[in-house]
Amino acid sequence: MLELYFKYPSVLRRLRSGALGKEMDRIAAHFSQVGYKHTSAKVYISRLARFSDFAARNAKTATIEQDIIDRFVHSLRTATPRSSA
Hints:
By secondary structure, this protein is an all-alpha fold.
């Protein structure tokens, strides 16, 4: 389902890697089913991929703990990305 929003193979591979990699197609399908606009879905998927990469590098277990989420939010440089995350 990610192919609805992204076309480059390297981008698709990156989106499918990381801690949430196995869920990204399901998330993209959900955005499509509930009627998210194409541009909005791409933004949200990109932000989730950024978090997924962070979690893959920082989580010690398969479960993403609250500490990892907090560290990701605090790693964002300005308040706008923090509030949207």
